[in-house]
Design brief:
Number of helices: 4
Strand order of the largest sheet: 2-1-3-4-5
Bound molecules: flavin mononucleotide
CATH class: Alpha Beta
Radius of gyration: 13 Å
Shape: globular
Number of domains: 1
Helix content: 25-40%
Strand content: 15-25%
CATH architecture: 3-Layer(aba) Sandwich
Number of strands: 5
Order of helices and strands: EHEEHEHEH
Structural class: alpha/beta
C-alpha cells in the first residue's frame, strides 16, 4: 500500500512522531508548510499529525487540511502530541471529513515529546496500518 506522512510541528514533538511513523511506512515525513507538502500522487493511506496550541490547531495545519481533496487518499490515519487534551485528534479528523477523506478510528497519540519506546511503538503502528 502506498503512503504519505504530513505533519505540522512548532517545537519538534510531532515532527519526531511523524518521522517514526514515516520510518514504519517507508516514506519521508513532510511538513505541511513546505513546497513538497501537496499530495502529487493519490495514496492508500495518508498519515497526518499535529499538536494542540491554546485549544486549537496551528494555522499552517488548518490551512493544509483545507487544501486536501477526496482523491488524495483512500483513507487517513491521525497522529498527535499535546500536553493534556487529545482534542487535536478530533480537530484533524473534522478537517479530513470535510475534505471527504475517510478516517481510521484508531489514532496515535504521544504526550508531548515521545521517548524511544513511544517512537518504536509509532513505527510499528504505521506498519500495521499498511498491512
Ligand atoms: C503556546 C502553546 C499552547 C499549548 N496549548 C495546549 C493546549 O491547549 N492543550 C494541550 O493539551 N497542550 C497544549 N500545548 C502543548 C503542546 O500541544 C505540546 O507540547 C505538543 O507536543 C507540541 O508539539 P510540537 O512540538 O510538535 O509543536 C501547548 C503548547 C504551546 C507551546
Amino acid at each position: 500500500m502506498s503512503a504519505a506522512v504530513r505533519y505540522y510541528s512548532r517545537s519538534g514533538n510531532t515532527k519526531a512522531l511523524a518521522e517514526a511513523i514515516a520510518k514504519g511506512a517507508g516514506v519521508s515525513a513532510v511538513s505541511v508548510d513546505t513546497s513538497d507538502a501537496a499530495i502529487k500522487e493519490p495514496v492508500d493511506v495518508l498519515f497526518i499529525g499535529g499538536a494542540l496550541y491554546a485549544y486549537g490547531l496551528d494555522k499552517n495545519l488548518k490551512e493544509y487540511l483545507k487544501t486536501l481533496k477526496k482523491e488524495d487518499a483512500k483513507k487517513a490515519v491521525v497522529f498527535s502530541t499535546s500536553w493534556v487534551s487529545k482534542h487535536s485528534i478530533d480537530l484533524i479528523r473534522e478537517g479530513l471529513k470535510e475534505a471527504g477523506i475517510p478516517v481510521e478510528d484508531q489514532a496515535f497519540y504521544a504526550r508531548n515529546k515521545p521517548g524511544q519506546k513511544k517512537l518504536a511503538e509509532a513505527e510499528r503502528f504505521a506498519k500495521r496500518c499498511l498491512l
